[in-house]
Amino acid sequence: MADAFDALMKSIADEADAKVDYAAMHAAVLQKAAAMRRRRAQFVRYGAMAATLVVLAGVGTLFLRARGDAARSGENAAPQTVEFSMGDQAVDMAPEGAPEEPAPGCVPESVCPTEKTGDAGVASGAGASNAARNEAGTPGAGISGHAAQEPLIAMSADELVSLCLAARTADDSAESALASFEWLYEPVSAGKGYRLLEIAADASGITYTYNRAAAETWNDEYAIFIPGESLSGTRAETDAAGVFAPAETDVTAGAAGALIWALGGGEAVLTPGAGCTLKEAELREFCALRLVEIK
Amino acid sequence: MPSRDFESIYADYSRMVYWAAYGVLKNESDAMDASQNVFLRVIKHQKKLETMEDAQLKSWLYRVTVNLCLDGKRKLKREVLADELPEMPVSDVSVLPEAAALDAETREALHRALQELPEIYRETVMLHFFSELRYDEIAKLTGVSEGTVKSRMSRAKERLLALLKGGAQHG
Questions:
Q1: Does residue A20 form part of some domain?
Q2: b/e per residue A42-76 (b: at least 16 CB within 10 A)
Q3: Shortest Cα distance from A178 to chain B (angstroms)?
Q4: What is the span of the domain harbouring residue A250?
Q5: Is 0.85 exceeded by the ipTM?
Q6: Residue A125 within any structural domain of the chain
Q7: Which of A233, A227, A230, A239 is nearest to A292 (CA)?
Q8: Statement to judge: residues A135 and A247 lie in one domain
Q9: What is the per-residue pLDDT across A146-157, written as a single tens digit (0 to 9) for each?
Q10: Do A82 and A135 belong to one domain?
């Protein structure tokens, strides 16, 4: 009876499968892949052009600003002199017995930062952006054992890939672990993504519970479950799903849902912090996990 | 270490991927779209995948498929109206002799019964008969023991038979 039933089910399945147009699906996949490659090539081409323009504009702005400042400092020193020169000013203004004047090439003080180190106020460009990221992402948004290190937060899919790959290839280094965890978070100021609510672990695996920002409400709650078996040893290391997972025995759950991971360089604690979000789309793409919707 | 290209991955696993997607989405065109996206991921991660062991690759494909489907399902937030497997060809029935026609009726009834199975049993049946996975493979993919898969399958069959009998009585 069971054999007959199995045979019947099998024939139904085969019959249904025969109606699936796998050739068309194959052709569509290749077509989409080619389109993606084209878009990427265009992005690289136009992106490079845009980057060049930005760099040129930046250089131009700096040049103009430096000239403006030089001119202004000249005006302050000798506003009524039209044919003003640095050498003249130095001679005219220097009191007798004064120390030697600075070399003509020196940038005026108004342009130079007064302190080169330890002054957050002078941070600019990428530094400022990093500082903003870190401020939003911490405290409690990373691994507390590495507070002194600069957090690595993925802000784009490409960054995320490189961080994940780095984490997976750099073996036991604390930095790699840091990279692999930090990408789970994104400053809430980004205004998108998923807010991590809780991380809990037991013998069967680890569950990340989060909700998503849909129309500025946080009413849907989801959880991602990482089975314990995917956390164990070599399998996790060779897992292409994208999760950096140390051996199961190295992971323990601490108080308040915090996870403690024993790393090559010591111990790190992953604590979900308020105001941090989890980017689910990226998580899904690079780490194929099981998603469980909590009803 | 096995080494495979996209074509061989597609040839070996397209059926599994499609029916895994169908099992979640319950709709042919959505399952087709989801399967295409899965294989786009395969192209994207080809270097990593080409040296994977079969079991590992299968697991990766299944998880990506299910996640993509769940993601798409939630994003679309739409009601799936066509919650049934593809219709059986009617023309076949009309030309069949009586015995075969009875068989066709049974098949159709079985088809309908399959839709009425609870998700947990339906998934097992779909993975085994449609995606052609063995019990041990289903166990690995769904994160349960092989014994659990077997018992689910056994209960699924019992329920299907019960549904068939019920249908016959009503009919």
A1: yes
A2: eeeeeeeeeeeeeeeeeeeeeeeeeeeeeeebbee
A3: 23
A4: 130-293
A5: no
A6: no
A7: A227
A8: yes
A9: 223 333 444 444
A10: no
Using the beta-carbon criterion (under 8 Å), do A9 and B10 form an inter-chain contact?
Answer: no
A110 and A140 fall within a common domain:
no
Nearest to B60 among A5, A229, A240 (CB): A240
Q: How far apart are CA B51 and CA A71, in angstroms?
A: 64
Q: Are B126 and B22 in contact (CB under 8 A)?
A: yes
**Residue A37 banded pLDDT, cuts 50, 70, 90:** confident
Q: Which two tokens stand for residue B1?
A: 């270490």
The predicted-structure confidence for A194-223, as pLDDT tens digits, reads as follows: 454 555 555 455 555 555 443 344 444 555
| Maximum mean pLDDT: which of A109-118, A162-171, A285-294, B155-164 | B155-164
- Is A120 contained in some domain? no
In terms of domains, do A105 and A135 share one?
A: no
B129 has a pLDDT exceeding 60: yes
Both A59 and A155 in one domain: the answer is no
Residues A1 and A144 reside in one and the same domain: no
Per-residue pLDDT of B76-122, as tens digits, reads 654 444 444 554 443 333 333 444 455 777 777 887 888 888 888 88
Number of domains composing chain A: 2
* B contact set with A (CB within 8 A): 10, 14-15, 18-19, 28, 32, 35-36, 39-41, 43, 45, 48-49, 52, 56, 60, 63-64, 66-68, 70-71, 74, 85-86, 88, 106-107, 110-111, 125, 129-130, 132, 143, 157, 160-161
**Contact criterion met (CB below 8 Å) for B34 and B21:** yes
Report CB contact under 8 Å: A9, B110.
Answer: yes
